[in-house]
Design brief:
The complex is a heterodimer.
Chain A: H1 6-31, H2 36-41, H3 44-64, H4 69-72, H5 79-91, H6 97-115
Helix pairs in contact in A: 1-3, 1-5
Chain B: H1 11-42, H2 51-56, H3 58-69, H4 72-91, H5 97-104, H6 106-117, H7 125-141
Helix pairs in contact in B: 1-4, 1-6, 5-7, 6-7
The chains are: A mainly alpha, B mainly alpha.
Chain lengths: ~120, ~150
Amino acid sequence: MTATPTSSILFVLTSSFIGSFGAVFLKLGAEHMKGGLAGLIKNYWLAIGITLYLLSSVFFVMGIAQGEVTILYPMISLGYIWTILWARLFFKEPFTSSKLGGLAMIIVGVALINLGKQ
Amino acid sequence: MTAPTVLEAPADTRAAARRAVFIMLLCTITGALAQMLIKLGSTKIGAHLTLVDVAHHPSLFVRFALQMIGNPKLFCGYAMYGLNTFLISIALKGRELSRLYPIIALTFVWVTILSVFVLGEHLNFFRGIGVAFIVGGVSVLGLKGKSGK
């Protein structure tokens, strides 16, 4: 059975980190949306957001090329940590008990999956 | 801003909400299938890189990205993702995003099941319980909780 190298895990974590910034820029883009196709093309926030998503997907594929999907795919969920943090920092969206509880469960889940690596 | 619950909403809103749930459910399945295509395509790219390799030689990153574009399975996988994103944006008009989180979380279940049957990976106790925790966690994220600031 193919093992999952640490470098693959690092690639996927990098990918989810970059992807979380993609979400921030898409949100900025949505807030600065002007009507029409021209408005969509000239929306630089959206362009930056999409570029970040493309970058993050290259890192993801580099990671997933070696190793098991059952280990690597669930790690994407760690991206919610960053998303919730950026939402608080940049958009003043408060931390709530459900967000913190959900994050705690996600972290426990990813830790358990890594325990089952062998 | 609180969304009306399904029970007290008028009939057309209820229908829109049900359609949103259905579209989202479909998206989790196609998303998981896309993930299989991405895995199968990625193994066709020969480059075995580490993060250190990429940091030292950024050209490797560019070369890898170009190989991705020329890979039919990766192309189809990401095209499916693109279509999914479009469908999700339609679904979001019918229902609040936070209420759709429990459905989005199902993707983790489908990907795990498909990894076993399509990719021949092994599931064990820890992996199963771990996925259950993640699904629970993602489902909880969108609930209206007490704001702790």
